[in-house]
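Q: Convert this sequence to structure tokens.
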Amino acid sequence: MSRVELVAPCHFGLEAVLKKEIMDLGYEIVQVEDGRVTFRGEEDAVSRANVFLRTAERILLKVGKIRAVTFEELFDQIKMLPWERYLPSDGKFWVTKASSVKSRLFSPSDIQSIVKKAVVERLKTVYHVEWFPETGAEYPIRISFMKDEATVCLDTTGLSLHKRGYRTMVSKAPIKETLAAALILLTPWKKDRILVDPFCGSGTFPIEAAMMAAHMAPGMNRSFTAESWTNILSRKCWYQAVDEANDLLDPDVKTDIQGYDIDPEMVKAARQNAAAAGVDHLIHFQSRPLNALSHPKKYGFLISNPPYGERLEEKENLPELYREIGERFASLDSWSMYLITGYEDAEKYIGRKADKNRKIYNGMLKTYYYQFLGPKPPKKKQQPGENRTEAEGQNR
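A:
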């Protein structure tokens, strides 16, 4: 197999962020839809996408696209796909997920059963056997219907890509690592700028920012289902992707990233998670209440996921909390603030209308990404011997 077509699901509302990430890896965008981006590349795109993409939920290898409005059509269409190109005779395969939106076939369990039977019948005719031991590598199948058309894929990832492997301790309402990374990428923050999260919880925002600053690939320290698919892509692809990640790593980068939380136990958990990620030396965590938030430097970034009622027993505390957020932000000279929250009255109590407001679905929960933009820092004077590109890069 040389050229492959891959599907990368993501949070609704963040497709453009993922599209840019994929293009930065050098791959061809085929289609951008709600909640997913389809792209093409050589076979090593499977390994590189899994290792390097920060905002994708998983990487799916596209087997084909079909249209079916009856289960008989579904069986026939699935059976026509070239499954022998992907599944060896001893492969363990099952339909791990079926979804359906605005389609006449809507029962996930029935769709899963029919697809499995159709794949078996196809492989019987190819391998000339009546029974498959399924003792080999695992090949999870995923099928998603949209308006009677279904995309059929193999899941190359396994555990979702938000499972970086570092977060062993979590807060009551943690933000997914992939979502946190996408929200940071939506800001103009760079590694030479200050970043503070006053509601850091288990530390996801500061840790993801530190990983970006250190050019640490999010998937370089975990395993993936497709690593055992030697019939599709060689192990060499995985070794090369990890080698590339190690070559890019800059663990000694200078940063000013801080995470605060009023709960000392959460701060302890955040430190443990940062240590597991290998970036604890790049982040300052501290138990500190919101009313103590201050910083002497200018042009910093406040990026956070404050409480918004879904995880508080008493929603009547929210007006005062967001009023205090607004007061603390006003005291930070020339800073920018980015908040993801489901609290619709956030702007009212912060006391300022957001410059930008992006609707994002965090699972089934509708949230808002309020963006309060501060001024850009003055451009640094070019030093003798410093080339222009380097000087410009520091001021972006």
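The chain has two domains: 4-155, 177-216+251-394.
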